[in-house]
Amino acid sequence: MDTDKLNVIKVNDGIYYATWTEYFTSLVVHNLLFPNTAYSLVGFAEDGAKLCAVVRQPFIRGQQAKLEDIKALLTFNGFTNTKRQDYFNEEFGLILEDMHDENVISQQDVLFFIDTVFYVTQQSK
Q1: What percent of the chain has pLDDT above 90?
Q2: For labelling alongside 24, which of 1, 17, 41, 52 has CA 20 to 30 A away?
Q3: Does pTM top 0.85 for this prediction?
């Protein structure tokens, strides 16, 4: 929790991405699609020999979203469920992974995506 109690601070070593460019692209896509939980880059830190990005994100109070609600919203917005909690948007060539109930918060029937993993592919219309 940040000192302002309104934001959380997250440290990411980019482990889910082949390059830092992929990681930062994922942040940009997240911020475009989910501006109510946009990331702000605070800086960089080291964890042993690993470089880590430090980001700030609004803290959302609520409960874990229901998987069927996540799927319904993403489907409505052009994403197809490819397997488990992974999705693909053919129009924009976006892969969205790991959209399980702990990565999406529900508050008064509004979904807040707080921990997304996006990849941009060449497979767009």
Answers
A1: 93
A2: 1
A3: yes
